Amino acid sequence: MASDTGTDLAAPARRGPYAKTAKRRQEIVDAATNVFATRGYHGGSLRDISRQIGLSLTSVVHHFPAKSDLLAAVLENADHSADWFLDRARAHGVKSAILDVVRHNLDRPELLRLLAIVSSEASDPEYPAHGWFVKRYENLAAELERDIAHDIQQGRVPSDVDPEQAAHLIIAVWDGLQLQWLLDPAQDMPGRMDRALDRLLG
Amino acid sequence: MASDTGTDLAAPARRGPYAKTAKRRQEIVDAATNVFATRGYHGGSLRDISRQIGLSLTSVVHHFPAKSDLLAAVLENADHSADWFLDRARAHGVKSAILDVVRHNLDRPELLRLLAIVSSEASDPEYPAHGWFVKRYENLAAELERDIAHDIQQGRVPSDVDPEQAAHLIIAVWDGLQLQWLLDPAQDMPGRMDRALDRLLG
C-alpha cells in the first residue's frame, strides 16, 4: 500500500521527477476520494477519476494498475492523522482527543462519506478491502481500549468503565453520528458526541 | 412506492394473476436486496438482478421501470416491522423492544448490509433516495424520542435522560454496532447493545 503520498508532499525542498510523481499521485488519490465518495467503490470507475482531473486513463493506470490499489491509497491517506490522535489522547485524555477529531472532520464530509460507504461495502468478505477494514476496526478498538485504560489510571475516567466495551461503543456511536450528520448537516455532531462520551465514559 | 408487496404475499387465499404478479414482484425485490447489498446501489444493475432469478431484463423492467423504483420497494420492504416495534416499546419499554429487533436482525445480515451501504450513499443530496433516508432517520428519532418519554413517565427510565438526545445516540450506536458486527460476525451485537442502552438510558 502507498503510505508515502502525504509525507512526500509535505517536504517542500523535494524537486524533480520524484516530487512530480508524488504530486500526480496525490491528485489522483484526491480525485478518487471524490469519485468513490459520491458513487461508491463499485460505482466509480478509473475512467471517471481520470476525467475529473483531465488525465488519460493510461496515465492513471500507470500510477495505480488496479482500482483496488487506488482504494488502498485513498484509505491510507484518510487514516494519516492516527499518530496525532495518540499523542493528544495521552496528554489530554480520550474525550478531548476524539472531540478534536470530530470538529476537524466537519471540514471533510466527502471523506467521511467515502469511509462510511466503503466500510459498509467492505463488510462483505468478498470485497477487495475487507481484510483492511476488519484490521482497521480491530486496531482502532485496541488503541482506544489502551487509551481509556490510561485515562482510568490517570483518574480522568471512573474505574467502573470497562475499556474494551467502552471502546467498541464509542466507535459505534461515532460512526452513527457521522452518518446522521452527513444526512442532515444541521445536526450538532460535536455536541452530540460530547454527550455520548459523557454517558459512555461517565 | 410499492408498499403492498409483503402484505399481498401474506394473504394465502389470493390466486390468479394478482397473486402471480405479487409473487414475481417479491422475487425481484428479494434479488435486488441481495444484489444491492453486495454491490451497492450504483454498482448493482437491473441486468444483475434479472440474471439472479433467471428472468429477462424486459420482465424486470415491466415490474420496475427504473432502478430507483426497485430501490424504493426494497427499502419499504425492509422497514415493514415498524408497527410491531411500536407496540412492543409501549408494552415493555424501549430497551426490550430494541433488543428484540437486534436479535431478530442476526438472521438478516444481507439486509443490514444493504441499509448500511445505501444510507451512506444516500447521504449525498444528489442520490435518488436521499429524501427518503433523511425522512427515515427523522421519523425513527421522533418515534424513539416519544417512546423514551413514555418510558420516563412509566418510571422505566430515569427522568434526567433527555429523550431527544438519547434517541439520536441510540440510533447512532445501533448503526455503528451493526457495522462492527457485519465486519466481524464474532462480535456479540446484542450484548454490546444491551450495555449501550444501560449507559444511554441509565
UniProtKB/TrEMBL annotation, chains A, B:
Keywords: DNA-binding, Repressor, Transcription, Transcription regulation. The lineage of its organism: Bacteria, Bacillati, Actinomycetota, Actinomycetes, Micrococcales. The keyword Ion transport does not apply. Pfam families: TetR_C_6, TetR_N. Gene3D superfamilies: Tetracycline Repressor, domain 2 (1.10.357.10). PROSITE patterns: HTH_TETR_2. This is TetR/AcrR family transcriptional regulator. One of its GO terms (molecular function) is transcription cis-regulatory region binding. It comes from Agromyces albus.
